[in-house]
Amino acid sequence: MSTSNTMRVLATPLGPLTAGLLLTSASPRATIVALAAPTVAIAVLGSLSNAIRNVPPLRELADATSSATAG
Amino acid sequence: MVAAARLIGPVGGVTRASPASAARFPAHRLRRNRDFVLLQVGRLFSSFGSNMSRLAYPLLALAVTGSAADAGYVSAVIFAPMLVFNLLAGVAADRFERRRLMITSDVVAALALAILAAAVAARSAHLWLILAVAAVDSVAGVFFRAGQSGAFRAVVPLPQIVAATSVVQARLSIVRLGAAPLGGALFAVTRALPFVADAMSYAFSTGSLLLMRARFQESRELDRAPLRRQLADGISFFLQIPFLRTTMLMVAVSNFSVTGIELAVIVLAKRDGLPGAAVGGFIALTGATTLLGSVASPLLRRLLPMRRILLAEYWAAVAYAAFVLWPSVYVLAAAFAAQAFCFPNTDSAVAAYSYALIPDP
Q1: In this complex, do B311 and A24 lie within 8 Å of one another by their Cβ atoms?
Q2: Measured between alpha carbons, how far is residue B75 from residues A5, A24, B207, B262 in Å?
Q3: What angle (nearest 5°) sits at the alpha carbon of residue B252, between those of residues B250 and B255?
Q4: Tell me, what's the ipTM?
Q5: Do A4 and B234 touch (CB under 8 A)?
Q6: What whole-number distance in Å separates Cα of residue B308 and Cα of residue B294?
Q7: Would you say B96 and B72 are in contact if contact means Cβ atoms under 8 Å apart?
Q8: How many CB atoms lie within 10 A of CB A55?
């Protein structure tokens, strides 16, 4: 879980860094577009992703995990 | 700030007690759990102080240099230690006495903040000092939280964990709603004040830890493998599972966007000449909608398919188009607050699947 948390925060410091630099050198509109566009792109990719579209109900997953652990 | 709180969470793996057992061990019994009360009171003061400082750091950088880029550097320094020290802090929490680790973290952070407050009061706070103190404060926070997870498990019996988690959520809500406006208001009174208050909050935290009787250490077998190999094994595990791979990318992008937009709200509000308390109010608005989102979360989970819940936060980013049409900080803050409503739903879904899929959380 520590590894997962570390990997998920990889881009976090880049957010304020990008915002600060863009607000200094570009317009607020361009800054917000640059910050929000990757999130919208992820929404599109996530909607097309089989891993998200076919995600099993959590209960099924927990049952499968417990069976695998028991086995 | 929001993202950090979302990622770290109050405790690790706390959702395992059943609702039935929670009913048998209701929250009022926790009030008699002396160590739990002490831990929560200490954490309430400490996290309230930290959240005041997290708003005050970029405000101070803006006041000292007038540069949005410098405010960005300071905010980046607040988040970078989570990336660099997260694994190391986990190892430290396993190998060293956790109470000592947490107290040392508190003392180091308090000293750093006292130095910054003195420099601000003497009008000699330069950018390098703000960056250095923000970094030390944040590193200390990473080590503190690594120890805290064990402390929580040590003071809360398993059947009380659901009730205890509710108490933690209530504490976090108080912090989300109150800390930023108060931090902004204190900053408006005098720039050193939020940092003085934060340093004092660490003293409360240390006091509460010293009064606790429980032993924070769990008996568990230590993983003696080198950190690099542990990390490589973890990454390899992630890459093999499409769901984890996809959601890891989703969360990473979301954290980039959310932390950036939060700083943009702060900088644009200051450019519009709004006072510190109003800037804090924008952050508190996001906290309020996050709270509403967590209240609505059980209902939404019943009504919506899981894939929609997982993607809600990302599609909500379309709301920022309103700022492109009408570039006002109020519109930006409203769009940010609207997206924040989706945070608890998406986050709890991702976290639940991660706990189910990742061994030994």
Answers
A1: no
A2: 19, 15, 29, 10
A3: 105
A4: 0.87
A5: yes
A6: 16
A7: no
A8: 22
- Angle subtended at Cα B240 by Cα B234 and Cα B243, rounded to the nearest 5 degrees: 100
Q: Which residues of A touch B69 (CB under 8 A)?
A: 20-21, 23-25
Contact call for B263 and A15, based on CB within 8 A: yes
| % of chain B with per-residue pLDDT over 90 | 48
pLDDT digits over B35-69, tens only? Answer: 889 998 999 999 999 999 999 999 999 999 999 99
Q: Can you give the pLDDT at residue B24?
A: 47
Residue type, B256: F
CA distance linking residue B18 with residue B1, whole number of Å: 31
Task: Give the per-residue pLDDT at B220.
Answer: 55
Among chain A residues, the shortest Cα distance to B321 is held by: A33
Nearest CA among B206, B103, B215 for reference residue B154? B215
Phi, psi (5° rounding) for residue A49?
A: -75, 130
pLDDT band at residue B234 using 50, 70 and 90 as cut-offs: confident
Shortest distance, CA A67 to any CA of chain B (angstroms) = 12
pLDDT of residue B344: 81
Between A1 and B315, name the one with better pLDDT: B315
Which amino acid belongs to residue B193? L
